[in-house]
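Researcher: Re-running this chain for the archive, since the previous output was lost when a drive failed. Same request as before.
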Amino acid sequence: MLIDWFTVGAQVLNFLILAWLLKRFLYQPILDAIDAREKRIAKELADADAKRTEARKELDEFQRRIKAFDLQRSELLGNVIDEANAERQRLLDDVRQSVDALAAKRREALRSEQRILNEALRSRAREEVFAIARKTLADLASISLEERIGEVLIRRLRGLDAAAKASMGEALSRASGPVLVRSAFDLPDAQRAAIRNALNESFSADVKVRFETAPDLVSGIELATDSQKLTWNIADYLSSLEESVGKFLKDADNPETIAALKPEAEKSEPQAKTL
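Model: Regenerated structure tokens:
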């Protein structure tokens, strides 16, 4: 077989021309496009990395701010709680002080009412005892209470022991004025004369006596000098009675006292049995 070198050369030339044309108009633009795309992709990846880094920084900053905000919120909340507790305690203290003050005022009011009641009972008891004693003495002995009280003073003067009598005599001798005899009523002339005689006989001296009415003695009589005093008063007995009544009223809420006051029949009454 003969080789046609012209044809071969022509084909080789056509191939080279085709290859140059393909490279010039096909492969090179494609390669340039690929290079440009790779560069664009690389740039976009770089931008994405930069943005990711920036986003991470912003996220870290945001988390730092969140932690700082949480810490500040915790501190503020703690301060608010402390202030609320302090205010609550202050209000409780104010309420407690108000309650204590109110209770103190109530106790003082009760004590005041009790004092008023005790004074009223004391005054009424004195008046009743005075009236009963006056009527009783008048009915039984046919003498007035005033005369009986004057006799009590005379009997006490004559019954003084040696020491008391000496002390009273010295006080009488040094007195700057007359002896004062105070009573809750006007003494009859006979009683006044009997008291003078008792003083003169007891102290062997002419004792000057001045009589005075003092309703506050409440059925009593008092002989007084500058430094000595001899008294008898129903109020002394009433004071003892008042102490006993006061103690009873104080113990009135005691269950033992209440139980002691119950009738024996009530305490011994059998309880109903449950079948």
